[in-house]
């Protein structure tokens, strides 16, 4: 009977440590890349941040305008419908009335509400349960040249602009704040 060739593999402690280190490194790399891909896909699913005015521009026309357009469209459809032939129906050779074109009303754009000069507006920068975060945001706004006031309401610290004014002036200030990295929103001042 022929003898088999046997080979002996000798693994030193350094070789085992090297293989283990390379394996752990590859697993770590796969994990980090997976997290990055997950963050990118999540960022693609969320829409980009938009201003308050952009949401209003996308609203549909008022309900009254939509109903008027629907009634107009139904009236146009009724002019094209033929009566179902029945036992007393005239012969099919009768001429149908000429089609009537009814122009559909253009979709109405929502108008911006007229600013009431008696109503005063201000901007809120943050609403947080963490007072330290509110102080940090107030300090950041003060450093940017916007004095603030912190209001405690229902357990939340709300950092608001110290000044109030008309809606137009507050919107102009909001634009300046957005350009400096803040996310303010307008609210009626008390």
- In total, the number of domains comes to 3
Measured by DSSP, the beta-strand proportion falls in: 5-15%
Shape: flat
* Mean model confidence by pLDDT: 78
Keywords:
3 domains; 190 residues; 4 strands; alpha+beta; Alpha-Beta Plaits; 4-stranded antiparallel sheet
What does it look like?
The chain has five helices and four strands; from the N terminus they run H-H-H-E-H-E-E-H-E. By secondary structure, it is α+β, with helices and mostly antiparallel strands. It folds into three domains: 13-44; 61-81 and 99-111, no CATH class; 121-188, Alpha-Beta Plaits (2-Layer Sandwich), CATH 3.30.70. A four-stranded antiparallel β-sheet has the order 2-3-1-4, with helices on one face. A hairpin with a 2-residue loop joins strand 2 (148-153) and strand 3. It is flat and about 105 Å long. It starts with 12 loop residues before the first helix and ends with a strand.
In short:
By secondary structure, the protein is an alpha+beta fold.
Layout of strands and helices, then pairs:
Layout: H1 13-45, H2 52-57, H3 63-80, E1 121-128, H4 131-143, E2 148-153, E3 156-161, H5 167-179, E4 185-188
Antiparallel strand pairs: 1-3, 1-4, 2-3
């Amino acid at each position: 009977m022929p003898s088999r060739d046997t080979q002996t593999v000798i693994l030193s402690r350094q070789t085992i440590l090297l293989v283990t280190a390379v394996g752990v490194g590859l697993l770590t790399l796969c994990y980090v890349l997976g997290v990055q891909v997950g963050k990118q896909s999540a960022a693609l699913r969320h829409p980009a941040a938009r201003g308050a005015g952009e949401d209003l521009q996308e609203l549909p026309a008022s309900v009254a305008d939509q109903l008027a357009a629907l009634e107009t469209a139904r009236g146009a459809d009724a002019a094209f419908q033929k009566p179902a032939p029945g036992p007393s129906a005239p012969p099919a050779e009768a001429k149908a009335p000429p089609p009537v074109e009814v122009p559909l009303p253009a979709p109405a754009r929502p108008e911006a509400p007229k600013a009431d000069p008696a109503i005063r507006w201000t901007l809120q920068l943050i609403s947080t349960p963490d007072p330290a975060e509110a102080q940090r945001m107030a300090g950041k706004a003060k450093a940017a040249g916007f004095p603030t006031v912190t209001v405690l309401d229902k357990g939340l610290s709300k950092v608001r602009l110290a000044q109030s004014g008309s809606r137009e002036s507050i919107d102009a200030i909001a634009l300046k704040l957005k350009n400096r990295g803040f996310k303010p929103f307008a609210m009626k001042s008390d």
